[in-house]
Design a protein that fits this description.
39% helix; alpha/beta; single chain; 2 domains
Length: 285
Amino acid sequence: MPTIRHILFPLDFSAAGMATIPYVRALANQLHARVTVLSVVPPAWVTPPGLIPPPVASDPVALENALQSHLDQLPLEGLESPPARITAVGDPALKIAEFTRDNAVDLVMLPTHGHGLFRELLLGSVCSKVLHDVQCPVWTAAHAEDQQATQAPRKILCALDGSEKALALAHWAATFSQQVGASLQLLHVVRNPSDWLKLKSEQALREELLAESRNRIETNLKSGGLGSELRIAVGEIVATLTEEALLEGVDLMVVGRGAMHETLGRLRTHVHGIIQRSPCPVLSV
């Protein structure tokens, strides 16, 4: 069950990173969690114009000191407790994973794109490494220039697959929703059995699949004491989930990511696509 007391916020000073600050502040205050702001730069990083002079940027020690100075001046008012501000030089994904493992981090909050360290976060290796190596939940901002979701989530959508882990994820989402005062909707997506649904036999097959999926998941939820609303939708997983989130005006989507030692589940294989196309932030557990 979610016990989020320590949030790690990797920041690269990009516009996307700065736009994530209000979401970090809102969630940290709702959960009464402390925040650590971590700014990591690779040794060969080319600093944005005006941030750090080139002679300083070429010296790892001077770069880290200059970055710490910028981090110390970062406006982070409104948090219940002053955040820790830490800098490091090295591989960003590796440093994030190491800090998360060694400092009892319960949640990592990341922007999804920018013009600094994470400018290729979703399509490059940083996101893949963080999502794979970090074992705690990871919150990622909507992959859009303008964030439409409320900073403090009020409507949460939890995407369930048909695996044995679905009940645990639903419990996690239900407890988290209560903690932040948000409503929760559970959604399971069933693939179309065929592209040719005009045939009565194909229509009947789809209805049979829908009924079977609903009965199986609802039985599993009830056995676990969960009575949250469950919706069943038909379609391609990523497109259907993101379309439903948009239509329902969802502020946050919760999906299962699994642990790095587990076999990849059906939803986990779609996590990157969901994050890329979601109209709201995604919290992968």
